[in-house]
Amino acid sequence: MSRAITKLSVLGLVLGLVVFASGCSGYGRSAPVDPDLSYAGTYRSYRAVNDEWTRRGKVYTNFETELVIDATFYAKPYRDALRAEKARAELLPPSEIAELQKKDELELEQMVFFFVSAYTPNRTWNNLNKDEPSFRLWLIDADGRQVAPTRIQRVSLQRKADLLYHPPMHNWAKTYEVSFPRHDEEGNRLRLSGGDVKFVAAGVQGNAELVWQIP
Questions:
Q1: 40-69 pLDDT, tens digit each
Q2: How far is residue 167's CA from residue 57's CA, in Å, rounded to a whole number?
Q3: Residues 71, 29 contacting (CB under 8 angstroms)
Q4: pLDDT of 157-187, one tens digit each?
Q5: What is the β-pairing status of strands 174-181 and 111-119?
Q6: Are the C-beta atoms of 114 and 78 separated by less than 8 Å?
């Protein structure tokens, strides 16, 4: 009897490892966003807000890492915190703060924006901004509507300040600015609250699904 139980346990472990090896995983898949977490006037508090709006996903094949991807969702609470931290750290005058706020309000109305950091062991696969990338990006709103990006721009973090605002996850990662439309192809406005908002990187190697549970 004990041998049978042992065999079943080993079989279950092997099956679990096979599923793990051929699939993908995302950190914070079911982690809800804390609506009460806000910027408190320090870099430490900004990092807490940044972490709250950032998710990580991984794609594996046969225990080999194919993709590690971080995405920071530029929702209004995060934009407010980033703007306030820039104002504090760089001693911005009121006129520049007002311009940043105006820019944020316009972008919130017109697009859904993510700051993305991606690592692949083969650097030629890290080509999210190409016409035929190794991984395609999708946004799925709280109603399940799926849209493709309107813009993917490769960016280089040159300033020390930029590295502090967007802490790199890996020395060999590439960074991108990714914009999605505010409406789907039928003209429906995407719903970005009251459910799960998903950022998906999909490729033949597997999919990484990053999820924000937004009240």
A1: 999 999 999 999 999 999 999 998 999 999
A2: 16
A3: no
A4: 878 888 899 987 777 899 999 999 999 999 9
A5: antiparallel
A6: no
What's the rounded mean pLDDT across residues 14-27?
A: 42
Q: What is the dihedral angle through the alpha carbons of 185, 137, 73, 142, rounded to the nearest 10 degrees? A: 50
Residue 9 inside a domain? The answer is no
CB 151 within 8 A of CB 178: yes
Contact of 39 with 46, CB cutoff 8 Å:
yes
pTM assigned to the model: 0.86
Identify whether 160 is part of a domain.
yes
Angle (nearest 5°) at CA 117 between 214 and 138? 55
Tell me the residue range of the domain where 134 lies.
24-214
User: Does any domain span residue 5?
Assistant: no
**Exposed e or buried b for every residue in 12-37, given b needs 16+ CB within 10 A?**
eeeeeeeeeeeebebebbeeebeeee
- Identify the pLDDT of residue 5: 43
Total count of domains within the chain: 1
Query: In angstroms, how far is CA 207 from the centroid of its own chain?
Result: 13
Which residue stretches of the chain are H helix?
Answer: 2-22, 43-52, 76-90, 94-110, 160-165
Residue 139: the pLDDT is 99
Reported confidence tier of residue 30, pLDDT bands at 50, 70, 90:
low
Q: Please check whether residue 68 lies inside any domain of the structure.
A: yes
Using alpha carbons, select from 104, 101, 135 the residue that is nearest to residue 118.
135
